[in-house]
Amino acid sequence: MHLNLPTFTAFSGFCALALGLFCSSYVFPKLEGYLISKAIALEEGGKAYEAWKNIPFPFKLKVYFFNVTNANDVQMGSKPILREIGPYIYDEFREREVLGINDENDSIRYTQKKNYYFNKDESGCRSEDDIITILHFAIVSMAFKINNISPMALPMLNDSLPLLFPNIKDVFITNSVRKILFDGLEIMCDSEEVDMICEGLRSTPPHTIRPTNDGKGFLLSLFHHMNNTNEGPFEIGRGLKDTVKGKVLSFKENNLLTQWKSSTCNEIRGTDLTINPNLPEVPQKINFFVPDFCRYFSAKFQEELHYFGLKTYIFKTVNLFQSRENCFCEIRSYEEDDDDRLLPNCPPKGTMEVSRCTGSPIVISQPHFLGAEKSLLEFSQGLKPNRDRHGTFIFMEPKTGLALKVKIRIQMNIFLKHYEDVSVLKNVSEGYFPFMWIENGAEVPMNIIEEVKNNFSKLKVFDFAKYVLITGGIIMLGVSIILAMVKDKVVCSCSKKSANSVKRRDYLGRFMNMYSDFEANNGVTLQQQHNVGRYVPNITE
Asked: Of 33, 168, 397, 427, which one has the greatest count of Cβ atoms within 10 A?
């Protein structure tokens, strides 16, 4: 057994090292991933499932208005001078009602309801009662639509505007933040002269217009249609079998959108960012679906950092609206050499018209026309694009797919065009006019971040086991080498003290041999000499 000790030690060390390497590269990551997936799985009764149904913290909707400081001059053709006012901050609470779970498809169907509450503390000195002046997007929108359908009807619109909007003086809205966003501005339909326009609003109302309680008119507001109303239904993957966790599989019972001219633009990709798949490898980009604008967007990977102690991937939008995405454009025809052709009528680079989605000719962009054509900044004064302040970004923890910090920023514009037959639009200059931008997103609270960190710390037992196996294996291999060298007498195993003891034993042996010779020659023992007190000669002489 002693002879096989080096071999046994080497074999044991090799097994420990191999096991450590195998577990660290395959077993432990799989086991860790399984435990994390189990903890965040969308299974009924689970903690993650309940948190997904009722998100335990509010999202933040921040609204910035472009207040027009020279309205009278703009009415006569001058460039608008804009002053950004905001943010007006609203807490956005999201609740989901599950309609069904399909185990076979590994999916969940649900509707979502959003509720908005003004946050006075975070809004600071700003109040919902603040009076602002912005472009009257409804008047511009009406003129745009009527001109596209029948330009001959524009004089009728001109006569109808004072009846639809009492006390109208120009092409601007001057009213409170609360009314513009939620409560609504009245559109009067109690006159026969406006019956045709009001009937058109009833048949195909844009999202921003809703009937009054008495049914005699309408209320115009930007966000009322999003407040306390069910959205969906959505269907997303649970990620337990073959689906991608959180991926939107269908919206309003369709796995493709219907607003756009191409299946490419009608694709539904990505998640809604509230629940995402884990990221075992760094992706070049991630997609997220925004139903408010009937499309998905992409954000590219930028860097990796630690956010409050958690490994985090940062994704940013380099250009949120790709240049000249033809399938998102309206189609117009024209004749050239007697050959009818269809060409896209695209807005400028860095913008997108969403009339097919919203029902209004709204053109969206990044705030302050970030990343858009430079010519867009020449129409008005007061815009200063800044990538940090106006760009969209996502902080994502890769092991869980938890979006730690999300900021999606969108600006709303409308093309201001002059029409000779509409008095309030007769002298205005033409250009893309911004009237507001919003930031929608959330930051995961610190208590949830600490909970995630504590759960991750429990998984460090795998790291401990890995290091024990690998380190122990290396040590045992080293010991086996030393044992083998000792066995083959490549090194001596005795100590210095042991060597000195051997030398003393050699000296004592030589002394006893010499004494035996002396005793034989003289016939007397050492003891006898001692007894008679005789001198014992020096045996070394």
From this structure: 397
- 8 A C-beta contact, residue 245 and residue 239: yes
Strand, helix or coil for residue 424: helix
Confirm whether 47 is domain-assigned: no
A 10 A CB-CB count for 247 gives 22
* Mean pLDDT taken over the chain: 83
Q: How many CB atoms lie within 10 A of CB 24?
A: 17
Q: Which two tokens stand for residue 208?
A: 């921003």
Q: Which two tokens stand for residue 120?
A: 């006075």
Q: What is the pLDDT of residues 400-442, one digit of tens each?
A: 999 999 999 999 999 999 999 999 999 998 999 999 999 999 9
Is there a domain that residue 78 lies in?
Answer: yes
Q: Which segments of 92-239 does DSSP mark as H helices, in order? A: 120-123, 137-149, 154-164, 177-178, 195-203
In the 8-state DSSP scheme, what is residue 81? B
Residue 397 has pLDDT above 50, yes or no: yes
Residue 298 structure tokens: 């992409």
Residue 263: per-residue pLDDT: 84
The residue count of the chain comes to 541
Query: DSSP H helical segments within 40-85, as ranges?
Result: 47-53, 71-75
The strand pair at 393-397 and 172-176 is best described as unpaired
Pairwise CA distance, residues 246 & 400, whole Å:
12
**pLDDT at site 25:** 64
Q: Is 485 within the bounds of a domain?
A: no
What is the number of alpha carbons within 13 Å of residue 385 lying toward its C-beta? 23
Q: Is residue 21, in this structure, part of any structural domain at all?
A: no
Query: Which stretches within 165-266 are classed as H helix?
Result: 177-178, 195-203
Structural domains of the chain, count: 1
Question: Taking the CB of residue 217, how many other CB atoms lie within 10 A of it?
Answer: 17
CA distance 354 to 63: 19
Residues 6+ apart with CB under 8 A from 154: 143, 146, 147, 419, 421, 422
CB 351 within 8 A of CB 363: yes
Please provide the DSSP assignment of 450-504 as one string.
HHHHHHHHHTHHHHHHHHHHHHHHHHHHHHHHHHHHHHTTSS----HHHHHHHHH
pLDDT for 340 equals 43
**pTM above 0.85?**
no
Question: CB neighbours (10 Å) of residue 494?
Answer: 9
d(CA 350, CA 319): 7
Contact 441, 391 (CB under 8 A): no
What residues pair up with 101 in beta bridges, in sequence order? 108
Measured from the Cβ of residue 339, the count of other Cβ atoms closer than 10 Å reads: 7
Residue type, 449: I
Domain membership of residue 104 as a residue range: 58-444
